[in-house]
Amino acid sequence: MKLVIAIIQPEELPYIKEELLKREIYKFTVTNAKGQGKEIPVQEVYRGISHEITLLKKVRLEIAVNNEYVDSVVDAITTVAQKDGDKGRGKIFILPIEECIRIRTGERGKEAIG
Q1: Number of structural domains, the chain?
Q2: Quick one: pLDDT at residue 95?
Q3: Which CATH number goes with the domain that contains 65?
Q4: CA 24 to CA 20: how far, in whole Å?
Q5: 73, CA 20 to 30 Å: which among 2, 4, 22, 104?
Q6: What is the bridge-based pairing of β-strands 56-65 and 2-8?
Q7: pTM recorded for the entire structure
């Protein structure tokens, strides 16, 4: 079992979600995040005062899968993210999962991930 964590550009989320669903990967968690990559800081003016925004909006996508689905998840994310090659597309991290327990039924391991 693995936990795939992807930090992606917000505008890519609908396309990655669609690609995951095509590959029958239905269960994932999405959270808003802020981060700094190699992007140039953005200048914004708020109430007449200029601010430098160095932490930009990102999306954190977490997908817990059985080992045989890891490549499919990575392919879904990279297929979408590699279409626009001029700026940073994000990162993918793959971590081992020691145990997974479905709260409702008490199932453990591969069956619990579903």
Answers
A1: 1
A2: 97
A3: 3.30.70.120
A4: 6
A5: 104
A6: antiparallel
A7: 0.82
Low-confidence ranges of the chain (pLDDT < 50): none
Between β-strands 49-53 and 42-46, what pairing exists: parallel, antiparallel or unpaired? antiparallel
The dihedrals phi and psi of 9, each to the nearest 5 degrees, come to -75, 135
One-character DSSP codes across 16-68: HHHHHHHTT----EEEEEEE--SPPPEEEEETTEEEEE-SEEEEEEEEEE-GG
Task: Assign 75 to helix, strand or coil.
Answer: helix
Residue 88: the pLDDT is 67
Q: Which domain holds residue 72?
A: 2-113
CA-closest candidate to residue 33, choices 61, 74, 63: 61
CA angle 97, 100, 106 (to 5 degrees): 170
